[in-house]
Amino acid sequence: MALTAPTRTSPVRARQDADGMAVASFVLGLIGTLLFNAVFGPCAIVLGTLAIARETKRRGRALLGIALGIADVILLVVLMTLDQSVFWQFGS
């Protein structure tokens, strides 16, 4: 039985993964402003940070995803402070 060395992903593949993370960060941050901000906000922050660390070509989207993730977390704190809820509430 021959042992083989683990394979590494190519730089092109790593860059594509980072670009996907940047887009996912933006989408999760955007969705998190309306739904499940306790989950989507931190995920957007982590994915955006990983995308920037892996040198994505979509740096703007990654930064916007991080900003939206931070806004989601702030929104969560405000909602919990004002009405002890983590959901939007329309009407009375």
UniProtKB/TrEMBL annotation:
The keyword Transmembrane helix applies. The chain crosses the membrane at residues 20-50, 62-82. It holds the Pfam family DUF4190. Residues 21-79 form the DUF4190 domain. Keywords: Membrane, Transmembrane, Transmembrane helix. This is DUF4190 domain-containing protein. It comes from the Bacteria.
